[in-house]
Amino acid sequence: MDIEQQVAQAKLVCEKRGARFTALREQVFTLLAKHNSAVGAYDLLSELQVIDSSAKPATIYRALDFLNQQGFVHKIESINAFVMCDHFSECNHPVQLLICDDCGYVEEIQSENLDLAIRSMADASGFKIKHQVVEAHGYCAKCQSDKN
């Protein structure tokens, strides 16, 4: 799906939810969608300042918080960065990310078996999962072959 289609889908999702997809939120969404890997908030801020020189850190963080709440992006806690969700119309899905420590590539995967295992262990402990993000760090196939 190209960026224009992603923006159109995000607008539809927001409209259905009664959420405001403002011009600023759209700009941040579009900037993030142009990246193939995780991006830090300050890198996005630098890109946004090319468009809007008055943008401040709070500006980018508010926009990213909104996009994260809507399920359009995922925050990668371990590296304090953000990545587009591959299927953001399902904002309550468990998030499983493969993160390359060399090039920064992030792949979102969906493993029903992993989700079931985590939920089963949580249930056995009497724990109710509200939101699930699994981050696995390592090296992508390209970086592995570059090392050989």
Descriptive labels:
2 domains, Arc Repressor Mutant, subunit A, alpha+beta, Dna Ligase, domain 1, Ferric uptake regulation protein, single chain, 47% helix, WH-like_DNA-bd_sf, two-stranded antiparallel ribbon, 148 residues
Number of helices: 6
Identify the overall geometry: globular
Instruction: Give the CATH level 1 class of the largest domain.
Output: Mainly Alpha
Return residue spans where pLDDT drops below 50 for at least 5 consecutive residues. none
Helix/strand order: HHHHEEEEHEH
Number of strands: 5
Write the CATH architecture name of the largest domain: Orthogonal Bundle
Number of domains: 2
Organism: Thalassotalea eurytherma
Protein name: Ferric uptake regulation protein
Main location: cytoplasm
InterPro entries: FUR (IPR002481), Fur_C (IPR043135), WH-like_DNA-bd_sf (IPR036388), WH_DNA-bd_sf (IPR036390)
Describe, in plain words, how this protein is organized in 3D:
The structure is a single chain. This protein has 148 residues and is of the alpha+beta class. The protein folds into 2 domains: 3-84, Winged helix-like DNA-binding domain superfamily/Winged helix DNA-binding domain (Arc Repressor Mutant, subunit A), CATH 1.10.10; 95-147, Ferric-uptake regulator, C-terminal dimerisarion domain (Dna Ligase, domain 1, 2-Layer Sandwich). Helix content is 47%, strand content 16%. It has a 3-stranded mixed sheet with strand order 4-3-5, with no helix packed on it. Strands 1-2 form a two-stranded antiparallel sheet. α1 packs across α2 and α2 (23-33) packs across α4.
